[in-house]
Amino acid sequence: MLNLIVIVILSYLVGSIPSSIIVSKMVRGIDIREHGSGNAGGSNVFRVLGWKYGILVIFLDALKGALVVVLVARLYLGSFPFPNATPFDDFTLVQIIAGISAVLGHIWTVFADFKGGKGIATALGFLVTIITVDMLLALAVFGIVVLISKYISLGSLSAAVSIPLIMIIRENVFGVDITGYHTILPFTVFLAFLVMYTHRANISRLLHGDENRISLSKKNK
After folding, report:
1. Are 216 and 121 in contact (CB under 8 A)?
2. Which of 48, 133, 140, 142 is within CB 3.0–4.6 Å of 155 for a Cys-Cys bond?
3. pLDDT value at 51 more than 90
């Protein structure tokens, strides 16, 4: 039990690393939370510092999710402290717990007054190691929506909602046997609602036509 608690804490701390704040201070000497939408995430960096730094932050945030699954979870030793009713082996379940902890750390970062980003990129990095094909398809949805609408928030919302839908279609329509389908699906539904919650201000702006569009031609200052 103690070993699992250590993994949860370490994963939370890795997820808490405020990539957007670090990059914005290094590049322009500003706190990204005081500019644009005020959110400490890649999409706001995209708007304020330009697409190059926006992509960098999104990559770093996704890397946090992947690292806790690939590296931190490997600190797990011994048997799982609770009955494991999932189709996953104990280690894979620990990886999922580590990934969730990293996402929570990103949203409520201990290094920035518990005011972080919205968890999209970190969740992407974590889930792509578990359900790779589904996440790559969801990433394609994100890219297409952003390319057409120029709204990163709409792309993020669309991608989050598409994950459980893609899983359902692949499993039930195309007959693909997705490992741990019945365990991961409820989590992806929960993730979709979490994303909608963290994007509630964006949803309001989208509905009122006040959301800021991004421009790939924007020059970094």
Report:
1. no
2. 142
3. no
For residue 210, how many C-alpha atoms fall within 13 Å in the half-sphere facing its CB?
8
Residue listed under structure tokens 């790779």: 132
Distance (Å, rounded) from C-alpha 124 to C-alpha 192?
12
Of 117, 149, 126, nearest in space to 73 by CA:
126
In the chain, the N- to C-terminal Cα span, in Å, equals 49
Collect all residues with Cβ–Cβ distance below 8 Å to 183 and sequence separation of at least 6: 86, 87, 88
What would the two tokens of residue 203 be? 């949803």
Which residue carries 């994950």 as its tokens?
A: 163
**pLDDT tens string 202-213:** 999 999 998 888
- Rounded to 10 deg, the angle between the 181-198 and 120-127 helix axes is 170
Cα-Cα-Cα-Cα torsion 134, 139, 145, 146, nearest 10 degrees, comes to 170
The answer to whether the Cα torsion of 147, 148, 154, 160 is positive or negative is negative
C-beta neighbour count of 11 within 10 angstroms = 31
Measure Cα distances from 52 to 40, 49, 107, 152, 158 in Å. Answer: 16, 8, 22, 14, 22
Q: Which among 93, 89, 55 is positioned nearest to 73, based on CA atoms?
A: 93
